[in-house]
Amino acid sequence: FIFNGDLVDRGQFSFEGVMSLLAIKLADPSAVHILRGNHETSDMYESYGFETEINAKYDKEVMEKFSELFEALPVAAVLQNEVFVVHG
Question: Which are the catalytic amino acids?
Fold first, then answer.
């Protein structure tokens, strides 16, 4: 499976959604591929509520770790040397 970005800012349970994806990725790394979308940028998650959600449920340190994670996500994938996948 490829998750093509915009993992957050999808309601009040974005944290739980992202953590579920990460748990699946850890359990079976080759089964899940996660790309970065525009909502995984600081301008977007500050504006659309993910940062507010994390700061309300946890703290700024957790948000900093999410920022590091999002910055490490690839922005594109190539499937079978034929299909280029990018958010947007």
Answer: 39
